[in-house]
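In this notation, each integer encodes one residue's backbone shape. One such record reads:

___
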Amino acid sequence: MKLRPVLDVAAVRLHERAPDRVAAIHRCADVLEEIGAVHPAYREAMLDREWAMSTYVGEGVAIPHGLDMSRALVRRDSLAVLRFPDGIDWDGNPVTVCVAIAARGDGHVELLAALARILMDPLRAKALRESEDPASVVEMLQAEDDEP
């Protein structure tokens, strides 16, 4: 999954608020629906995935996404990046950024690898968590397309 075609600045929201991870996942689903990426039922698949296994990946980031069986609910491969400046308790871990994934195939594995490269670099992870500019978030993630 190349990031250039699946992440648009319209899907980057940097000033979100949520009292808990369930509300944060609902906000992620809202954005994926708003950009036309998923059927409304995908929201339940995202929650089901979270209850099956936490989507927290470290460095203040979670990657809410649906279960494999929910791929039919994905209209087009897409990402949404939501930042929660006040943070959210994610099953005992502090989360400030959610990268919501809607993928019809296995391309999300490439996305996870790109995200891992960002999170392994403390400066880029910090930049992702603290960015105030949606375009810079898109640029940072899309730059991973050019990595070997």
Summary: The mean pLDDT is 87.
